[in-house]
Fold this sequence. Notes:
The structure is a homodimer.
Chain A: E1 12-20, E2 30-31, E3 33-38, E4 41-47, H1 48-54, E5 59-70, E6 72-77, H2 93-108, H3 111-127, E7 130-137, H4 140-150, E8 153-160, H5 171-185, E9 191-197, H6 205-218, E10 222-226, H7 230-240, H8 244-250, E11 258-262, H9 268-277, E12 280-283, H10 285-290, H11 298-303, E13 307-310, H12 323-338, H13 346-360, E14 378-382, H14 394-401, E15 407-412, E16 415-419, E17 422-423, H15 428-442
Parallel strand pairs in A: 1-5, 6-7, 7-8, 8-9, 10-11, 11-12, 12-13
Antiparallel strand pairs in A: 1-2, 1-3, 3-4, 5-14, 14-15, 15-16, 16-17
Helix pairs in contact in A: 3-4, 3-15, 5-6, 12-13, 12-14, 13-14
Amino acid sequence: MSPASAPEADASHCLEPRWVLPMDPGSAVLEGHAVVLVGPRIAAVLPRAEARARFPGAARVSLPSHAVLPGLINLHTHAAMALLRGMADDLPLATWLADHIWPAEGRLMSDAFVHDGTLLAAAEMLRGGVTCFHDMYFFPDAAARAARTAGIRAVLGLVVLEFPTPYASDAAAYLARGREVQAALADDPLIATAVAPHAPYTVGDGSFRAACELADAHGLPLHVHLHETEREIQDSLDAHGRRPLARLDALGAVGPRLIAAHGVHLTDAEMDLLAERGAHVAHCPAANLKLASGLAPVAALRARGVNVGIGTDGAASNNRLDMLSELRLTALLAKGVAGRADALPAHEVLAMATCDAARALGLGSRIGALRAGLDADVIAVDLGASELQPCYDPVSHLVYAAGREHVTHVWVRGRPVVAGGRLQTIDPGDLTERAETWRRRVRP
Amino acid sequence: MSPASAPEADASHCLEPRWVLPMDPGSAVLEGHAVVLVGPRIAAVLPRAEARARFPGAARVSLPSHAVLPGLINLHTHAAMALLRGMADDLPLATWLADHIWPAEGRLMSDAFVHDGTLLAAAEMLRGGVTCFHDMYFFPDAAARAARTAGIRAVLGLVVLEFPTPYASDAAAYLARGREVQAALADDPLIATAVAPHAPYTVGDGSFRAACELADAHGLPLHVHLHETEREIQDSLDAHGRRPLARLDALGAVGPRLIAAHGVHLTDAEMDLLAERGAHVAHCPAANLKLASGLAPVAALRARGVNVGIGTDGAASNNRLDMLSELRLTALLAKGVAGRADALPAHEVLAMATCDAARALGLGSRIGALRAGLDADVIAVDLGASELQPCYDPVSHLVYAAGREHVTHVWVRGRPVVAGGRLQTIDPGDLTERAETWRRRVRP
């Protein structure tokens, strides 16, 4: 089913919140305004009386204590790993991967695992106000089916590795499967693709070159784990005689397509290079802490003009796919790392998770802001709960005080996928059953 | 009204959760068990069938997807500052205090401000599973009234400062007011007191000595901000020729009564001293980051045997009074700071917020664990939501995946103060009105 043919596509809604946060560069918080959605697009952001006059047929959605803003974008995740949420914690990275994650994946990886895991992840993300996720995992075709069912936008990384898994046997096979998925999704209005050579330590030079060619040929993002750990950098020095970023730059991979996931260990010169090349970073604060990878220099990156979005990473190393929690951690941690309480104010963090992330994905002209003509990926967050009182500034509250439980409404391409705090597209009972079935297989 | 005379005092409840986490040293997670509350006390933790046989009259509370554990203890806060939540963010500490917090407090500080602010804070804390908070603020008698209305346990710091506020004119006046409040609350089963000389930079040697005498005379904790910022340490070197901890130690203030709030900047020798003296630290990870105070050496403190609890600090520098969020941040940040993913596992963090915090407050024989004879300060957290699936380990989920929205039931001294996720003691509409009234006064 194409979302364009969904029954809601012609409906129109006039959202009447207390606050509108357009997240357009330079835009202020608006009061007394409405956001009008017609079919899959935003028709207008305008004063409420004007909206009612111009769109008399639109169904009014009263949101008296709510902020309405663009949907949050999760710029780096492995959605299907939701099925491995909390299966192994508090372990050194090498033990965690080699003794727990890889064996479980090796035994269970399949189209069905990825479908069910992505469905579980999509439900969690939508209910938490995430309308788009940038994924990297096996069986992206299965992830696409799940995303479509859930009604969430996805940019699915077509993963490339050198070693065999149940998904593909070698880099050429990964690339071949990736090309097939890309072709099948090329005109999809909801699901897009990226090319995802996994990491410098799992992908050889030739495969990186082939991945770049594929990305260039179709204008896709290049999704790579980069400078996540000190060990990755040391291994690269040992194997290639240079650091991973320098190696990728020599291969032509560092440019405006590149979304470097993690970007924890970066010299000043490397940050300058990312800025010069127009590359993007997907900052994953919770996972970087949980795996003890380190403290990313987010304020320093942004000061140099590097575009930085925010990601949850997979639920196996987080253990939640909760962007509001990640925004808060981003804002707090940046201050601690920079040693300045005025580092990374709340409004900048909100921009990172909306308009900046959209730009990283090459979707800046379609999502990430509330502006007439953009796709209607919109969320409402109720700031009326007593734990959010008093409210001096809705932007501060969204970043520092609110939680995902305060998200009440979510529209993706105009489709109401969450309403009254409830997911409209998937039955939670069915999700729990699927998760429980996989839990028994993961740990019999 | 004394809680002992509350109508619920003779009721008995048989809680039948999926998991019981007793948080007794060395205790494991129990399945198939029940927790029986009779009046204000825990009567038994035992296999479910046995519970039903021994307590046939107890009202059964079915908690099929829940974990039941001791209530969380917020070891450092300024509850009434909830009224200043988010009024000024992203500012350097000096600007934040001098241009925003102090002027607002100076204009508005009163019995009514503290009562309403504490009521707002108590509601937020109870709904998030906090059954006890260790406070430091003006007008502790007003805070006591609010805590009693809300039905939350409190240990109220009797604040001591050298400078005048609407609460008291000088250190002698603060101490005199403190003695009055202590005498009035001496036999209260729900509300206790601590002596709270605010900080080394706001309290002189003589006042510290008097505060210690008061604490010794009544066996009270000594609640002090200590080694929170580098500037505090430099100022002490300039004014006293030694670091604050050394100065307090010379005054006899460093011992098993001391709860040092923050404890961010500590040398190895200072950590050894805290361990030798049996002093406690209240770790405040979110506030330490938000005010850019620094990264506290929690794993190192614990490795030396220092008892560390967790606090939210006030909502003006957090901006939430959410202990589950603070637990998660504690576990994540300790790994990042120690550079080891196995630093501070989930079960240790849960102990810090329950049994360890109770011990810091001198209440280890009354709260902090589920054991027959202890006060019935108990919470239930529903781990059945789809965003918490699958569940391999309830302890991991409580620390890394669950949020305060999953807390469904809270009992304090056996009184059901939260049931079905709803506060039973205060009307949220009334709270919102009070908060809104104060908001208008804070920022007219």
